[in-house]
Design goal:
It contains 16 helices and 13 strands. By secondary structure, it is α/β, with parallel strands linked by helices. The protein binds adenosine-5'-diphosphate, acetylphosphate (UVW) and magnesium ion (MG). Adenosine-5'-diphosphate (ADP) binds next to helix 11 and helix 13. This is Acetate kinase.
Length: 405
């Protein structure tokens, strides 16, 4: 019987899951799946590595699918498809690890207690991440459970990249910028090292543009600064999140408009960003297909903020050698990429419009001073690598070439 690792990545509106065999040459994908649009027209898609995908809408007649029932579906599917495998570990994406977790950890009761404290700092993710751990503990009681943090990759930032302009005692208490999407940045940065090692050791800006979105500046593969802050609200506008906001707006909503903290939380996390600006949708595909002026304005605002953050981060790291796009929008929305970089000649970017329209790996012209690449991210693979690594099931993922598979 072969040993296997499962991964669970519970996001704001989707759950991704995967299974990997621990083979002598590294991790071999066995199966993966995702449950999308939880709460509304939920769909379930799963496929063994060598077989066709099962894709089906979920029957909502018994009530809308919530994260808990979606997790049960995911865990149940993994259970049915682990046939012939011994599940030795389950790796979980945990969005908030706070100031102390710079590495993944094997979960025990103490870890769970600590991680629960961060629920208010990541309300769209942390409760679902913890529910995923509870579901996996129940379904796979003999397997090790490993938490892999979105924040861990950013824990080496210099003080000025993580502090706010607040009294220092608040920084000391933990009120600071944590940065998120770290598993994605780590994966993309390792992929970059295998496809373009010279670039990877230089000044790199990665734009993770998905339903949640952020930009990260790296030097020699290490995160130096990120647009995300104390919570996953800061920085870029996102599907339903506001992005950077004058804190005076929150005070105004509270004191002048009489909104409650819960109402403000809902507004900033669920009703803002692309959805709030367009009045239409959080989904970039729907906005691109729409002729409504507000849909165009929402895209224009998103693009303007990405441009501003790229330029700002370039200043932070003293220039840029490569810009990399990842995430659903970053990997597929070529018009958005063109709008972001089409006229950034002043920064040294010369976009290859044809390659860009094909979503090619390199989308800059050969003589562009700044290389521009599209590298599909794979948080699940990164979770599996970390899980295997911390349990000593494979050698260091950083030294391996497995990510080039
Ligand atoms: N072909 C495409 N063109 C434009 N946008 C796309 C395309 N495919 C996916 N997207 C956008 O990517 C976003 C979702 O990104 P993704 O990384 O999958 O999100 P999540 O953070 O939930 O993992 C949505 O806004 C979706 O519209
Ligand atoms: C941290 C975050 O925003 O994650 P996601 O993109 O999965 O929503
Ligand atoms: Mg995501």
């Amino acid at each position: 019987m072969t040993d296997a690792i499962l991964t669970i990545n519970a996001g704001s509106s989707s759950i991704k899951f995967a299974a990997y065999e621990i083979a002598t040459a590294g991790l071999r994908p066995l199966a993966r799946g995702h449950i999308d649009d939880i709460g509304d027209d939920t769909t379930f898609t799963a496929a063994p590595a060598d077989g066709p995908a099962e894709r089906q809408p979920i029957d909502a007649s018994k009530g809308a699918v919530d994260h808990r029932s979606a997790l049960e579906l995911a865990v149940d599917w993994l259970h049915r498809h682990e046939d012939g495998c011994h599940v030795v570990a389950v790796g979980h994406r945990v969005v908030h690890g706070g100031p102390d977790h710079a590495e993944p950890v094997v979960i025990d009761d103490g870890t769970l207690l600590r991680l629960r404290k961060f629920v208010p700092l990541a309300p769209l993710h942390q409760p679902h991440n913890l529910a995923g751990i509870a579901a996996a503990l129940h379904a796979f009681p003999d397997a090790a459970q490993v938490a892999c943090f979105d924040t861990a990759f950013h824990r080496q930032h210099p003080f000025i990249a993580d502090t706010f302009g607040l009294p220092r005692r608040l920084y000391d208490e933990g009120v600071r910028r944590y940065g998120f999407h770290g598993l994605s940045y780590e994966y993309v940065s390792r992929r970059l090292r295998s496809v373009a090692p010279m670039l990877a050791s230089g000044r790199v800006i990665i734009a993770h543009l998905g339903n949640g979105a952020s930009v990260c500046a790296l030097r020699d593969g290490r995160s130096v600064a990120s647009t995300m802050g104390f919570t996953a609200l800061d920085g870029l506008p996102m599907g339903t999140r506001c992005g950077q906001l004058d804190p005076g707006v929150v005070l105004y909503l509270l004191t002048e408009k009489g909104m409650s903290p819960d109402e403000i939380t809902h507004l900033l996390y669920h009703d803002s960003g692309l959805k709030g600006l367009s009045g239409l949708s959080n989904d970039m595909r729907e906005l691109e297909a729409s002729h409504a002026p507000a849909a165009r304005e929402a895209i224009d605002y998103f693009v303007a903020r990405v441009r501003r953050e790229i330029a700002g981060l370039a200043a932070t790291i003293g220039g840029v050698d490569a810009i990399v796009f990842a995430g659903g929008i970053g990997e597929h929305a070529f018009r958005v990429r063109e709008q972001i970089l089409g006229d950034m000649g002043w920064l040294g970017v010369d976009l290859d419009r044809d390659a860009n329209a094909r979503n090619a790996q390199t989308v800059s012209l050969p003589d562009s001073r700044v290389a521009v690449l599209v590298i599909p991210t794979d948080e699940d693979r990164m979770i599996a690598e970390h899980t295997a690594e911390i349990l000593g099931l494979i050698h260091s993922a950083a030294d391996s070439t497995r990510l080039t598979d």
